[in-house]
Amino acid sequence: MELPANYEMDILFFFGEKQEELRLYNLFFDCICTSFPEASVRVQKSQISFYGRHFFAAASLPLRRKKGWPEHSLLITFGLPCRLDSPRIAVAVEPYPGRWTHHVLVSREEQLDEELFEWVSASWAFSESKRKNTHGTSG
After folding, report:
1. Chain-centre distance for alpha carbon 42
2. Does residue 133 have a pLDDT over 60?
3. Residues 6+ apart with CB under 8 A from 60
4. Residue 91 forms part of a structural domain
5. Which residues, 6+ apart, have CB-to-CB distance to 135 below 8 Å?
6. DSSP secondary-structure letter at 84?
7. Which alpha helices (H) appear in the chain, and where do they start and end?
């Protein structure tokens, strides 16, 4: 996994006092590293984004909690060409025709399971299949 120069410090700053969320993120990150060793990561203000040729997944802290969401949780985001029908999907939106963004709430280690990583793997494949135009951006 390609890490930016200040990754460790940026991660600690991103999570601050949220130690349970940091623990869940580190477990997610380890699985991403194992599954996608050629990926890169960027710590941004609102999310930690993972890239191959294009964005394929992110981890973030829920900013607006829906009623009934656990106090300590991580939001895992990924994109697919179709909407997933699963009770695990907290939110799904179609920002562009044929591109669905899904958000899964993770509050326990066992939720970082095979099903979630099958979806993330499908997102990787979907993002890698996007064509590149002559200006070097996704199309």
Report:
1. 11
2. no
3. 46, 47, 48, 74, 75, 77
4. yes
5. none
6. -
7. 7-15, 19-35, 114-129
Please state the rounded mean pLDDT for residues 86-102: 94
139 falls within a domain: no
Q: Count structural domains, the chain.
A: 1
DSSP letter, residue 66:
P
Angle between helices 19-35 and 7-15 (to 10 degrees): 140
For residue 136, being part of any structural domain is answered with no
Residue 85 backbone phi and psi in degrees, to 5: -110, 95
Answer whether 114's CB lies under 8 Å from 122's CB. Answer: no
Dihedral pair phi/psi, residue 136, rounded to 5°: 80, 15
**Residue 137 falls inside a structural domain:** no
Residue-range definition of the domain harbouring residue 119: 7-129
Q: pLDDT tens, 41-71?
A: 999 999 999 999 999 999 999 977 677 778 8
Rg of the chain, C-alpha, whole Å:
15
